[in-house]
Amino acid sequence: MVKFIHTADVHLGREFDQFDERGEERREDIRLTFRRIAGLAVEKGIDLFLISGDLFNSPNPSKKDLEFVFEIFRMLSDNNVVIFIIPGNHDYYIPNGIWDREFNSLGKNLHIFTSPKFETIDLEHFKVSVVGCAYNRHQSNFRLLEKPGLKISQQNSILLFHGSYEYPNQEYRDQPFSLEELKRLPFNYIALGHYHRRLGIFSEEKKACFYPGVPEGLNLDERNAGKRYVILGEISDQGEVNITIEEVQRKIIEILSIDCTHFQEKGALEMKIREHAGDNKILKLNLTGKPTMDILETIDELQERFSGYFYMLKINKNRLDTPIDIPVDPRFIIGRFCRKLEDQIDRAENEEEKQLLKVALNLGINAIREAEKR
Asked: Which of 120, 159, 240, 244 is deepest in the core (most CB within 10 A)?
C-alpha cells in the first residue's frame, strides 16, 4: 500500500492587492498553511507528497520563499517522504531556472518533472509508477491527455497534471482535457492542479481524480471562498483507492450578499453582519437592493464599527439601487438626479456600465444629502 497527500496552487509569494496593507501577513499565512500540510504528511505517515503545479506564484520566487521551501522539503525528506512536483502555469519551467538550480541536494526523495512530455518514475518498493509533465506555456492549448503516450511498469500508478477540466459549452486554453479523456487513462489516482476550488471529478473503487483547490484562499471571490483542503489518499496493492480530505486554511474567505430592501432599521443589518463574525474570517459583504436612507448613510460607519469583528471586512455598496424612501418629486434636485441616473442604468448596455452608474448614483446621493445639511 502507498499513502499520499495531494496539494496544488499554493502560490507562495503571491501579491495581495485586495488586502491593502495586510498583503505580507497573507503571504505568511500561505507559508504557515504549507508548513501545516507538510506536518500532516509526517503525522499521518505519508509516503508520497504530490504538488500539481504552482507551488510558487512566479518562475522567479524570492530568496525567502526558496529557503522556506527548501527547509520544508528537507524536513519531509528526513522523514522518508518522497516529493513529486510539476511546474504549473505560474511557476513554469525555465532552462537553468529554479527547478534546475535550487533543489539538487535533496537527492532521491525529490522528483521534479521538467519535461513538457510525460515522464515516468517507478517506485518498486511501493509498486507504483508516478507520471507527470511540466506545464508547457508555449503550447498551452495542446491536448496532452488525448494521446499521452504513457509508459507504466508498476501495477498501480499516479498522474500529476496541471490543466483545465472542460465544462460543457466553454473554451479552455490551459492544457484542456475532457471527462472522456480522463476516463480513458489507466491511473489509479489523477492529481490535478490549476482550479482554485476543490473538485472531485470522479471517485471509484480503483480510480479517482481530484483538484484539491488552493490550500489558502487567494482572492475575494467565490472560487477562493470557504474552507480549504488537501487530499489524503491510499492505494492498496490491489489498486483500491481510498480518498479523504483535511481542512488546512489559516483564514476563511466568505462572500456574503445582503438585500437591504428587507431591512428597515440599521440594527437588523448590524445583527446580520455579526452572525458571520470571526477572528479568522475575511468577509466581503455585497449590499444590494433598495436601502432606506438611514441605512445608506450609516454604511461607512458599519465598515469602521465592525472591522474589529473580523480579520478583514470589505463592504461593497456599488450594487445598491436608489434608496426606497428617497423623494422622487422632480421639484427636488435629488429626485431629478435619481430619476436621470435610473434611466441611464435601465439603458446600460452591459453589467460593467450598470455597476459604474450605480456607483455614480450613490456618490451623487451622498453629495446632495451633504449639501442639504449645510
From this structure: 159
